[in-house]
Write a structure and sequence with these properties.
heterodimer; A: mainly alpha; MetI-like fold; 2 domains; about 75% helix; B: mainly alpha
Chain lengths: ~325, ~300
């Protein structure tokens, strides 16, 4: 087990290092150039000054050399300054991180609380009208363009019936728990509609699969009540693959959060990434993107390890084989 | 009685032929049939837009500021947008773009995935390990932020010739390329799994003994075994591609105006939700209905092609 975990950990680190180089290289290919931006803000700069600045910042060096320079600094904790926020990038991130944690955490909990009972209900009444309706609703949730959903919710609840705030995390000057909570309602509802459909479908499929197993028939045969069979025998086993799939879909949830945050001007990691890419804030974009990649990799790793650990049927001896 | 019944349906199925059975079962999936009809109608309308414009006497790109924000009328079936352009015609052009991007990118992803999956599954060993690590790596990435970076790249810095960068349709090609770059993983895994199992079959051994090489075995023996899951996965991926295209276009990183796309029509409409919310309604509704139709169709195809469902 330890060997398996170590192997996967090393693998994740390698992916992260490769991605740091790829993202670094890609960001260098974005429109706009740090020196051009300086020239724009200071018209007295001559071409000679620009060339000198280029040399000072090492921008005339080849890509690999620049990357190694950045990586060395990064390893000692220096990730550079943010152009938009005029602070070290590591100081900028915590607030955004907390906001995203609130948004994604709440969405996650609400989605699970809805998806598990609804998925089990649909599975136990396969092909009934209720199952059919749930299936339709799931397809709707999976297929709706999330930015348009956000726009419709804003039109409904902030424009036509103005009961909820359409943007931000709190009113100007206002703090207070209730105020924060009111600002979270529309983003959380949007992201929940986006995620709950696929979770419910996973839960339904998993429950159907488990209910076909021999041990369920055995449990019925020895006279256990339907509720007992479902809760004690089926639910536990059905949840295992669902938990894994949900952890694996962390990246998807984060992508949804990025759109949600952008639509509701909610200052989280997704909006930070989008704004820094659009605002030529290269240091910020690089670190925020890498951080998102790191968390996604960790979620995947946790899913694999949890699966290998919880399910004794999975062999984790073969180093590379991921138990999916 | 039950077993006998099953046996009868099975022989009945064989006698009727695979295709007849397939269409019979797809037909039973009413949502899938309805979706196929809807998509066919949408496709015909979208690609006949120039003719429709001529018949109705409208022009999707004609700016007429004296005709801004008109309600539905005989001249403009759904009214006009913030620049006085005909909304219905623009929606149809948007459909053309979404369907084109969706189908082409899904096809390109399927081809890439098939090639990678075949190479990994058939040749195995180090190549397999390398390709599967690559697949796992791509799957593990946060997709949308990366697509945003890829969509924001400066093509001139990439070293593309000016004639390509200046092409009016470049935003269309670029979005197809970047979505295909990340969209091949599902098909690659499906094909690899199939190639792994088929590789060990006796008929493959027989083919090898008869002198067939790798490419022939892959094309003649492995591919036919995996074609139906590829079709299902690709149909489902068209919906996803359309969602990705629309959100990138909405963020200003996908299809660029003056080409109309459902996504970039919503960009303009977003600022006008206080005065004309209906402008934001139509394009999104069309994305929604089109994506759900592809998902229903994929679901129906899956049920119709799944050999395990034959038993039930």
């Amino acid at each position: 087990m330890t060997r398996y975990v170590m192997g996967r950990l090393v693998e994740s680190v390698i992916v992260l290092v490769i991605m740091s180089f790829v993202i670094y290289a890609l960001i260098g290919l974005m429109p706009g150039d740090p020196i051009d931006l300086m020239i724009q803000s200071d018209p007295r700069l001559t071409p000679a000054d620009a060339a000198r600045l280029r040399a000072v910042y090492g921008l005339d060096k080849p890509l690999v050399e620049r990357y190694l320079h950045w990586a060395t600094a990064a390893l000692s904790g220096d990730f550079g300054h943010s152009r938009l926020y005029v602070r070290p990038v590591l100081e900028v991130m915590p607030d955004f991180l907390l906001n995203t944690f609130n948004l994604m955490g709440l969405t996650f909990v609400i989605s699970i609380v809805i998806a598990v009972p609804v998925g089990v209900y649909a599975a136990l009444r396969q092909h009934s009208a209720g199952d059919y309706a749930i299936n339709l609703a799931c397809f709707a949730g999976i297929s709706v363009p999330i930015f348009w959903l956000a726009l419709m919710l804003i039109i409904l609840f902030a424009v036509l019936i103005p009961v909820l705030p359409a943007s931000g995390v709190s009113s100007i000057g206002g703090g207070g728990f209730l105020d924060h909570a009111r600002h979270l309602v529309l983003p959380v509802v949007t992201l929940t509609i986006f995620s709950v459909g696929s979770y419910t479908r996973f839960m339904r499929a998993s429950t159907i699969e488990v209910m076909r197993q021999d041990y369920i028939r055995t449990a019925f045969a020895k006279g256990a009540s339907r509720n007992r069979v479902v809760v004690r025998h089926a639910l536990r086993n059905a949840l295992l693959p669902v938990v894994t799939i949900i952890a694996l879909s962390f990246g998807t949830l984060f992508s949804g959060a990025l759109i949600t945050e952008t639509m509701f001007a909610y200052p989280g990691m997704g909006k930070l990434i989008y704004d820094s890419i659009m605002g030529n804030d290269f240091n910020m974009a690089l670190v925020a993107l890498l951080f998102a990649t790191l968390v996604t990799l960790l979620a995947n790793l946790a899913a694999d390890i949890a699966y290998a650990w919880l399910d004794p049927r999975i062999s984790y001896k073969s180093g590379g084989g991921s138990p999916r | 009685m039950n077993a006998a019944h099953h046996a009868m349906t099975r022989t009945g199925g064989a006698a009727r032929g695979v295709w007849s059975l397939f269409f019979h079962r797809l037909g039973a999936h009413r949502l899938a049939v309805g979706s196929a009809v809807f998509l066919a109608v949408l496709g015909v309308l979208a690609f006949a837009t120039p003719a429709i414009e001529a018949v109705l006497g409208v022009d999707a790109n004609l700016v007429d500021l004296s005709q801004r924000f008109q309600g539905p009328s005989r001249a403009h079936l759904l009214g006009t947008d913030e620049l006085g352009r005909d909304l219905a015609a623009r929606l149809l052009y948007g459909g053309q773009v979404s369907l084109f991007v969706g189908l082409v990118a899904a096809l390109a992803s399927a081809v890439t995935g098939t090639v990678i999956g075949l190479l990994a599954g058939y040749y195995g060993g180090k190549l397999d390990a390398l390709l599967m690590r690559l697949t796992d790596g791509v799957i593990a990435l946060p997709l949308l932020p990366l697509l945003i970076v890829l969509a924001a790249l400066d093509l001139e810095k990439l070293g593309l010739p000016e004639s390509v960068v200046q092409d009016p349709n470049i935003s269309l090609y670029r979005i197809i390329v970047i979505i295909s770059l990340v969209g091949w993983t599902t098909v690659a895994r499906l094909v690899r799994a199939a190639a792994l199992s088929v590789r060990e079959m006796d008929y493959v051994l027989a083919a090898t003994a008869a002198g067939a090489g790798g490419p022939r075995i892959m094309a003649v023996h492995i591919l036919p075994n995996v074609i139906s899951p590829i079709i299902v996965a690709s149909t489902l991926s068209v919906g996803n591609v359309i969602l990705l295209e629309s959100v990138l276009s909405f963020l200003g990183l996908g299809i660029q105006p003056p080409i109309a796309s459902w996504g970039n029509m919503l960009t303009g409409a977003q600022e006008l939700i206080w005065s004309s919310p209906e402008l934001a309604f139509y394009p999104g509704m069309l994305i929604f209905v089109t994506v759900i139709a592809f998902n229903f169709l994929g679901d129906g195809l899956q049920d119709a092609m799944d050999p395990r469902a034959m038993e039930g």
